[in-house]
Write a structure and sequence with these properties.
With 122 residues, the chain is mostly beta strands. It is built from no helices and eleven strands. 0% of the residues lie in helices and 48% in strands.
């Protein structure tokens, strides 16, 4: 059974940095579309970044230039490096994955992490 386990959240002051990790077990990252989402209190869940099988990445406009998504297939781990954090980045962050040999783009994600809180204070 595929499981995603997140780590690395926490609290930081505005302008600081954090790195989230998402480890997959029960399968591999290879050949999958992977993504990060976030949900703030009272707001809808939003996509933050995606990375496809070839390593092509996309970002929400709100995080472009500040966040970087990356994957290490050998370690079966995906990362989200978050720099220049703002209070508006405060949310519960989730990693998500699709089945093998699937593309990114519109559609559902089959597997989800447990969520990791990121809190940015001003």
């Amino acid at each position: 059974q595929v499981q995603l386990v997140e780590s690395g959240g926490g609290s930081v002051q505005s302008g600081g940095s954090l790195r989230l990790s998402c480890a997959i077990s029960g399968s591999t990252y290879s050949g999958r579309c992977m993504a990060w989402f976030r949900q703030a209190p009272g707001r809808e869940r939003e996509g933050v970044a995606t990375i496809d099988r070839a390593g092509y990445t996309t970002y929400a406009d709100s995080v472009k230039g500040r966040f970087t998504i990356a994957r290490d297939n050998a370690k079966n781990t995906m990362y989200l490096q978050m720099n220049s954090l703002k209070p508006d980045d405060t949310a519960l962050y989730y990693c998500a994955a699709r089945p093998p040999y699937t593309n990114c783009g519109p559609g559902v994600y089959t597997y989800w992490g447990q969520g990791n809180q990121v809190t940015v204070s001003s």
